């Protein structure tokens, strides 16, 4: 509902392995993401390895999914991305979102569009990034994203 604020329940500490693996996976060869000696000479890195911004975006987005878009069938847009504070190996990221608008989809009956503003914070409360995002979600009437958990053949779980 528009105006609802979600402080997403999980935080995630970024390890050096996370940073290195993501950097290698994406072929991002900027040495600030995997070479401590090189990063120590960067005035922004404060002598620490900088986390690849693609990883921080993916992580903050992922932290928001449980509350904002778990049953989405499509992301429609991510705009106004701001990277406002460096993220370092060892930082723990959190995410919070506000639903800014909901409306029925004009092109897909039974679906709606949810617009949200999401921001990522580090363990110290510094806002490290923010963006506006929209996603296409099914209405309850479609049944999509519902009743997917299998029924146990042995019956319900008991004490």
TrEMBL record:
Record's InterPro entries?
Answer: HotDog_dom_sf, MC_hydratase, MCH/BMMD
| Signal peptide per UniProt | none
Q: Which Pfam families match?
A: MC_hydratase
Molecular function (Gene Ontology), one example: lyase activity
Q: Extract the Gene3D superfamilies matched here.
A: Hotdog Thioesterase
PANTHER family referenced in this protein's UniProt entry, alphabetically: BETA-METHYLMALYL-COA DEHYDRATASE, MONOAMINE OXIDASE-RELATED
Q: What is this protein called?
A: Acyl dehydratase
From which source organism is this entry?
Answer: Rhodococcus wratislaviensis (Tsukamurella wratislaviensis)
């Amino acid at each position: 509902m528009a105006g609802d604020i979600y402080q997403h329940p999980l935080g995630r500490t970024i390890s050096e392995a996370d940073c290195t693996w993501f950097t290698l996976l994406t072929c991002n060869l900027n040495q600030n993401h995997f070479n401590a000696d090189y990063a120590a000479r960067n005035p922004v890195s404060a002598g620490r390895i900088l986390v690849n911004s693609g990883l921080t975006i993916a992580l903050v987005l992922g932290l928001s999914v449980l509350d904002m878009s778990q049953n989405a069938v499509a992301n429609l847009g991510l705009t106004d991305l701001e990277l406002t504070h460096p993220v370092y190996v060892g930082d723990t990221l959190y995410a919070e979102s506000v639903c800014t608008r909901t409306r029925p989809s004009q092109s897909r009956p039974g679906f709606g569009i949810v617009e949200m503003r999401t921001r990522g914070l580090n363990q110290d409360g510094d806002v490290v990034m923010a963006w506006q995002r929209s996603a296409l979600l099914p209405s309850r009437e479609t049944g999509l994203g519902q009743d997917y958990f299998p029924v146990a053949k042995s019956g319900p779980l008991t004490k």
